[in-house]
Structure formats: structure tokens, C-alpha cells
Amino acid sequence: VQLQASGGGQVQAGGSLRLSCAASGFIFSVYTMTWYRQAPGKQRELVARITSVGSTIYTDSVKGRFTISRDNAKNTVYLQMNSLKPEDTATYYCNVIVGIEYWGLGTLVTVSS
Q: Which H or E run contains 53?
């Protein structure tokens, strides 16, 4: 299993970014995919999750601003982040549980005020 996250960068508050996570090594379409983030000095937290049938959940702080989606034909999960805030600054990781838990390397998002 491999997860490759991309799309991070530096953006001003109020801006947008779209993260991608390209997956391989498993049957992508049948597994739930999750985005987590970890800010400096803080614990890793769940940001958004999408099931194989497209059901989604979000942490309260991103509801209405972030959208998780998936393209099973491309084995990719996305996180569209709008109205970014400085508190969204973190390294973002994609995650899947295929027997055991797998993590991508992460992509850094920096939001300046």
C-alpha cells in the first residue's frame, strides 16, 4: 500500500487549496479514506473521511469550508479547502486501513494571516 499526498503550500487567510492523495497497492474503491492533520505541538486530528459509498464526515472546525471527495477511476482522494484560516496550518496526511493502518508522507499547508 502506498499513499502519496500532494497539493500543499503557502496561502493567505481566505484562500483555497486542493490536496490530492494518490493511492496504490489495494482495491481503492472499497475502502474508506481519511484525511488527518497535525499542527506543530499538537496531536494528529481527523479532518475528513469518505466511505466507499461516498458518505462523509468532517471535524467541526472545517465543516462548510472543506470538502472531501474521491475518484475511484484515478485511485485518488481529494480535500478541497476553502476559506482557509491560520489555524488550518498543519501537515496533512491521508490514511487508509487495509488490515493495518497506512499513512502517506504528508503535505504541508501554511496559512498566513
A: none
In the prediction, which pLDDT does 89 show?
98
Q: Nearest-CA neighbor of 96 among 72, 77, 79, 71?
A: 77
Question: Cβ distance 72 to 66 under 8 Å?
Answer: no
Provide the pairing of β-strand 66-71 with 9-12.
unpaired
21: β partners: 5, 77
- Whether residue 50 contacts residue 77, with contact meaning beta carbons closer than 8 Å, is answered with yes
Angle at 80 between CA 49 and CA 54, to 5 degrees: 35
Do the strands 9-12 and 107-112 form a parallel or antiparallel pair, or are they unpaired?
A: parallel
- pLDDT averages per 10-residue partition of the chain, 113 residues: 97 98 98 97 97 98 98 98 98 97 96 96
Give the number of residues written for the chain: 113
The pLDDT assigned to 91 comes to 98
